[in-house]
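>> received
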Amino acid sequence: MKNLKISDFWIYKFRYQIGVGILSLSYLAIIIYTLFFAPNGLTAGEIESAKSSMNLNFSSIFSKNILDFPFRFLQKTSIDIFGLSNFAIKLPSVFISLCSIFFITKISGMWFSKRASILASIIAITSSQFFFIAQNGTSEILYIFYPILLIWSGMEFIKEPKKHQIFTLISILGLSFYTPLSSYITLAFLITILVHPHLRFIIKKLPNYQKIAALILFLTITSPLLVSIFFDFSILKIIFGIPNSLKLFENIKSLVLALFGFSNPISNGMISPIINPATSILVAIGLYFTFIAKHSAKSYLINIWTTILLLVCIINPTTITILFTPILILTITGLQGLINTWYALFPKNPYARIFGLIPISIFVFNLLITNLSVFALSYRYSPQPLAAFSQDLDILLEKTDSNRILMVSKNEEDFYKTLERQGRVKVKNKFEDSEVILSKEAYQNVKIPVNYSIKRILVSNRKYNADRFYVLRRG
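>> returned
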């Protein structure tokens, strides 16, 4: 009878496919949960993003409206197709997050082994920060997407520096400049090229006509942004994330609490800690292996990029989202380092090698379950992140009929005017109808005629500030 080997078992043969399947199911479960169950609402940033997208006007494009233009255009298209809703506002971020996961897996497969890339991708998508950003209907998802895309494109260029690779890289680079803070990844790239001998050699070897063509392409793509900056220099302040005031000690304290503490002073709906204890260990191990592999282009880029972004976050802690990608890469590096160290102990023993993966897989699985549990419970019961989400749009659409007459405050008018343009509500500023719905803000600031009385109050599921709309009836 033939002795069975580990490689004969189907679970071993299809281990990568199983890993990709778990990754896909995890992502699908997370997105369904975040879209339809929790946090079930819109942050102030999402509402502002939707207003900016719906008011996108090509006649006034050479202004601050140029910032995040690709994302705004996608969001406007989504709202036009599906109507103003939580789903339509969040859909562009969900789509871009899916693309980000695809390229994260591609980069991990190029820089690391398959097993490490799959395990690390699972860690990435189950982190609370990715949960939040993936469903957050703002351009913050681009802080993950553009760096990942640039790294992938740069790696393809280094592997095979042909014309189409150069132009792909430059095109992505040009588009990324429309998103604030993306210039810092470019700065990290430039410094890495200047200090790393192999990268300098590759760039030096390129024909001059290709360098000139690449520069012309970059200037062409960024020309609308450059024109906008010429008319309004304050755009530069937004692009580089420069705050109105600088309080270094307070900023460092806020940054540390957001990253490692359980109370996030700069929370806009994101739960804390951003880096949990288990991930912290992998990041620390990743830093160690990055420093000892100091001659590789990857180590140069990660170290330079992380240093630059940490300085940016110290100056402006609200930009903390930009740390996601370097944290992810360091996590993968730490995981790969652990696997390689174990394999080095047993270079020719397949049983020891496979059994070494078991505790690491259990660790990743436990991390996945813990992250999912923390996310689900925090967005149902934790008051700090929940307070950042408004359920007003869902409440209005689900608890009132299609003939709704609405009165809102000046601050809310632009948002609900979109519903009016779609024929789903009539926004008025006078008491002319037999029944009218007032937002809470309008109810508190408008003088209500004596012949109108409260018919019912529409409430959210929050403990505090639950009254959201007042339905008034005349007579």
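>> Residues 392-474 form one domain.
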